[in-house]
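Customer escalation, tier 2.

The customer says the design service returned an amino acid string that "doesn't look like it belongs to this structure." They asked us to rerun it and document both sides in this ticket. The original C-alpha cells are below, unchanged.
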C-alpha cells in the first residue's frame, strides 16, 4: 500500500516495530494491526502470531494476520511468523537448557541484535509467550528493545481474570522479573478505549476491503456466544493503546513503579523485587480512536 497521507516523519523519530498478536482471539487486534501499518512513524518489521491458550490458536492468529495484510494490499510488504504453540510451564524458564524456539522468537532475536540506529519496540497484544521464549534463549536482547504490553491488572486489581496475563502466567512473570525497558498497559487502562458499533459502521465499514473486514469481523464476534461478556453494541479496542503509546508516549499518564508479580488468579502482588518499569494509569481514547479513523479514511476511504 502506498500511503495517501500528505506528511511523513523525520527518520530520526521513526521506530522499528514488531507486533506480537493473538489476532484471531477477539476482534480488536486487527484494528491495532491496521493502525500500526498505516502510521509513518512505525516501521513494521514483522508480525508474530501469538497463541490464546486454545489448541490451534497460533495458526488461527497467523491466518487472521494474513487476512488483514491482504485486505490492506500489504501482504507482500510485512513478514508474518508462527509463534509458540501454547503457554510454557514455570520449569521452562527455570531450566538452563536452550530449546528450539518458534520462527517468531527467532525473528525477534535476529531483529533485536541488528546494528540499527532506530530503536526497536515490540508491541504485545496478547499473552507474552513469544517474547519470553526469545528472551530465555537470548537474554541480552532485553537491553536492545522496549516492550509494550497490553496485560495484567497493574496497580489496581479487579475481580476477574485478566486474559492476556492469564494465558501464560509463567511467561508473564518471567518477563516482569527481567525487563526494565517495559511499558505496561493494564486492564484498567486498555478497557477504556470504548467505541460503539454504530460509529464503526459509519467510520470504518465504508473504507474498502479492510474496513469491511474489520467491521464485519467485529459484528460477527460480538454476536457469538464467546462474546457473552460484552455489553451489546459497544466494544473496547483494548489493543490499540500499544500502538498509540509508540506513536506518542504522552498520550496517557504513567508512573515508574515496581513490576507486578502475577498470581494464579491474575491479581498483582508487589514486593518481589521486580525491576522498575513504566505502568500507564490512563490513555487518551480520543487521540487513539481519531488517529485510527483518520488514517483509515484517508488511505482507504472513497
Amino acid at each position: 500500500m502506498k500511503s495517501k497521507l500528505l506528511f511523513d516523519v523525520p527518520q530520526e523519530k521513526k521506530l522499528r516495530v514488531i507486533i506480537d498478536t493473538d489476532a484471531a482471539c477477539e476482534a480488536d487486534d486487527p484494528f491495532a494491526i491496521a493502525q500500526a501499518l498505516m502510521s509513518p512513524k512505525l516501521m513494521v518489521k514483522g508480525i508474530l502470531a501469538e497463541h490464546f491458550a486454545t489448541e490451534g490458536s497460533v495458526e488461527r492468529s497467523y491466518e487472521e494476520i494474513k487476512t488483514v495484510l491482504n485486505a490492506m494490499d500489504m501482504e507482500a510488504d510485512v513478514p508474518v511468523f508462527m509463534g509458540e504453540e501454547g503457554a510454557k510451564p514455570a520449569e521452562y524458564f527455570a531450566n538452563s537448557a536452550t530449546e528450539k524456539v518458534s520462527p517468531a522468537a527467532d525473528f525477534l532475536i535476529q531483529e533485536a541484535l541488528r546494528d540499527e540506529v532506530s530503536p526497536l519496540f515490540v508491541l504485545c497484544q496478547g499473552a507474552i509467550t513469544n517474547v519470553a521464549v526469545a528472551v530465555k534463549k537470548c537474554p541480552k536482547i532485553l537491553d536492545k528493545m522496549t516492550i509494550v504490553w497490553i496485560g495484567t491488572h497493574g496497580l489496581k486489581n479487579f475481580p476477574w481474570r485478566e486474559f492476556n496475563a492469564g494465558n501464560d502466567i509463567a511467561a508473564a512473570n518471567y518477563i516482569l522479573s527481567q525487563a526494565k525497558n517495559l511499558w505496561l498497559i493494564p486492564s484498567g487502562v486498555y478497557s477504556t478505549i470504548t467505541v460503539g458499533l454504530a460509529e464503526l459502521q459509519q467510520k470504518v465499514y465504508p473504507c474498502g476491503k479492510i474496513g469491511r473486514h474489520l467491521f464485519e469481523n467485529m459484528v460477527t464476534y460480538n454476536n457469538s456466544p464467546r462474546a457473552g461478556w460484552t455489553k451489546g453494541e459497544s466494544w473496547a479496542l483494548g489493543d490499540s493503546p500499544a500502538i498509540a503509546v509508540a506513536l506518542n508516549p504522552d498520550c496517557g499518564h504513567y508512573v515508574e513503579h515496581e513490576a507486578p508479580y502475577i498470581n494464579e488468579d491474575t491479581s498483582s502482588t508487589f514486593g518481589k523485587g521486580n525491576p522498575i518499569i513504566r505502568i500507564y494509569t490512563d490513555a487518551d481514547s480520543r487521540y487513539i480512536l481519531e488517529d485510527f479513523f483518520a488514517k483509515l479514511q484517508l488511505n482507504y476511504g472513497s
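Tier 2 assessment: The sequence is consistent with the input. The chain has a mean pLDDT of 96. Residues 176 and 301 are 41 Å apart (CA to CA). Sent an explanation to the customer and offered a walkthrough call.
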